[in-house]
Amino acid sequence: MEIKILGMGCVNCEKLERMVFNALAELNIDACVQKVQDIPEIMKYGVMSTPGLVINEKVVLSGRVPSKAELEKILLEHVNR
User: Fold this and answer.
1) Catalytic residue list contains 13
2) Tens digits of per-residue pLDDT, 4-21?
3) Which residues of 39-77 are buried (b: 16+ CB within 10 A; e: fewer)?
């Protein structure tokens, strides 16, 4: 699974990044996590508000930080795809 966290380094972007790493560890999911801070690269995904979360090149969340339960649900939905 390939995960990209889109954001310029704001507090919410950093929080989402920590939450993703924590959730992956708790769920024992292997994933390649990349942080994308380049505005033109973020715009390619059509994300207008950060943080954004992209899994396997699909935007699954943007403009907010999910709850822990929501993030885990999103990750589990994409783990076997």
Assistant:
1) yes
2) 999 998 999 999 999 999
3) eeebeebebeebbbbbbeeeebbbeebbeeeebbebbee
